[in-house]
Design brief:
2 domains, Rossmann fold, Metallo-beta-lactamase, Chain A, 21% strand, binds zinc ion, alpha/beta
Length: 479
């Protein structure tokens, strides 16, 4: 065992679950950087649920020189306004796409959260813009260039959502530099639009997510075919197909795959009398529409397949029969229209687990109609209406919204393979793909079973690496 004091890593979140990501890298006396500052969500928020007493920053910021953001999912960035409120005024480093997306995400989060005061939101957004530093991928940047306690960081594409990065931190020590890599969330192969992550060149310490550490994803390469089959089957009775989808990432992935289906099946019938090229696809979520616009702007960050489609004159995120709905009035009008008549179409709306947002109005209006079909493409957490529909729908049960019961007559389908996270094989490839194995791997951001199973596999593959599961192995052993 070495007796080095720095760098030292303190995990402020994502230890006993997958939300609230926040890690502090202490690289010298009274000097540290934070990597992510996310919100605890669902049952992982302490107290009685989300928005309970975990919003405040509950650790000292005195040593914190900077914040590095891996990507703009709310469980990685949601507490940034609270960080600013607590007086943090250092630089906030992130990738160039993330720097564009972050203000949108935080504005939206503040509107629905406890900070829903227009003046306050404006102030925090202004402060955020002032502190944001957009970094290009693959280039080292000095965070602290003091001769005795230097720190440089480099972002590498993580393939998880647009702008996502893993962070390499090079700490200057008297003997030699020590490199700590924070994985953020790692993407999966076969994801539309983004290339999968490449392992780091080197790491002395790797802090890695383990969300799917005990599972391999099913057959991602075939999912477009399955999506098409499900939709065509669902449209036989000429009802609407509802797809609850999160605004960031998942909606754009689906649009990309729908364009692929339309491109190759243009004149084939999607429903009786309607060829694919005429089937209307509705994105009914203002946030998703805004994100889709940014995704379109950020073409240089797309993978080669997506850029090739552009060169062929295709528009993966802006095809002809795509309709976006912004105003609430238009939204209500479409809900009524679809409810009153047979109207085969595909509707994408948030939230992904049907907890809130416009999808709820669609479900209230349409879940009781046999012609409707609901297609789930994401994980439905326990206690959410999405999980209830998935569980009780097939046997003719009901789902509750605002205290009222809605019998489920709609068809219910679940399409696997849509996770934006690397699976067991992907995580192992990332951790073992370096020329030299890291001295230490710390597994975070996963349920206990996932972390421990992955830890066991890594111990076999990398016998000279210390595999740490923070939270349990660091408990005092002899008490
Ligand atoms: Zn994420």
């Amino acid at each position: 065992m070495t007796t080095r004091i720095f760098p030292r890593i303190v995990h402020h979140g994502a230890i006993n679950g997958v939300t609230g990501s926040c890690h502090e890298l202490q690289y010298a006396d009274s000097k540290s950087v934070l990597v992510d500052c996310g919100l605890f969500q669902g049952s992982e928020a302490s107290g009685t649920g989300a928005d309970s007493n975990t919003l405040e920053i509950d650790f000292s910021l005195q040593a914190v020189q900077a914040l590095v953001v891996t990507h703009v999912h709310i469980d990685h960035v949601g507490r940034i306004p609270y960080l600013l409120a607590a007086g943090f005024d250092g630089p906030i480093y992130c990738s160039e796409p993330s720097a564009l997306l972050l203000p949108l995400v935080l504005e939206d989060a503040m509107k629905v959260g406890a900070m829903g005061n227009r003046r306050l939101i404006g102030r925090y957004l202004q402060q955020l813009q002032h502190q944001l530093v957009a970094l290009p991928y693959r280039r080292w940047t000095d965070v602290d260039s003091s001769p005795d306690a230097g720190l440089a960081i480099r972002l590498q594409a993580a393939g998880h959502i647009l702008g996502s990065a893993y962070v390499e931190c090079r700490v200057q020590l008297p003997e030699r530099p020590h490199t700590v890599v924070f994985s953020g969330d790692l993407g999966a192969p076969h994801a539309p639009l983004l290339a999968p992550p490449q392992p780091p060149e080197a790491a002395d310490t790797l802090v890695m997510e383990s969300t799917y550490g005990d599972r391999d994803h099913e057959d991602r390469a075939q999912r477009v075919e399955r999506l098409q089959r499900i939709i065509e089957r669902a449209l036989v009775d000429r009802g609407a197909v509802l797809i609850p989808a999160f605004s960031i990432g998942r909606t754009q992935e689906l649009l990309y795959e729908l364009e692929e289906i339309i491109h190759r099946s243009r004149d084939n019938l999607a429903a009786r009398g309607i060829p694919w090229k005429e089937l209307e696809i509705v994105v009914d979520s203002p946030l998703a529409s805004r994100f889709t616009r940014f995704y379109r702007k950020l073409k240089p960050y797309w993978d080669s397949e997506a850029r090739q489609r552009l060169q062929q004159g295709r528009h993966p995120l802006a095809f002809e029969q795509l309709r976006t709905v912004d105003s609430h009035r238009d939204h209500l009008a479409i809900v009524d229209y679809v409810k009153e008549r047979d109207y085969p179409c595909i509707i994408l709306a948030a939230s992904g687990m049907c907890v809130a947002g416009r999808i709820v109005n669609y479900l209230k209006a349409l879940v009781g109609q046999q012609a409707t079909d609901i297609v789930f493409v994401g994980y439905q957490a326990r206690g959410t209406p999405g999980r209830d529909i998935q569980t009780y729908g097939p046997s003719g049960g009901y789902v509750s919204f605002d205290g009222e019961r809605y019998p489920i007559k709609a068809g219910v389908h679940t399409l696997g393979g849509y996770s934006a996270h690397a699976d067991r094989a992907g995580l192992l490839a990332f951790a073992t793909g370096m020329a030299e194995a890291p001295a230490e791997i710390r597994l975070i951001h996963g349920d206990s079973a996932a972390k421990h199973e992955l830890a066991n596999e890594l111990r076999e593959l990398l016998p000279h690496t210390e595999i740490v599961v923070p939270g349990d192995s660091e408990l005092p052993r002899f008490v």
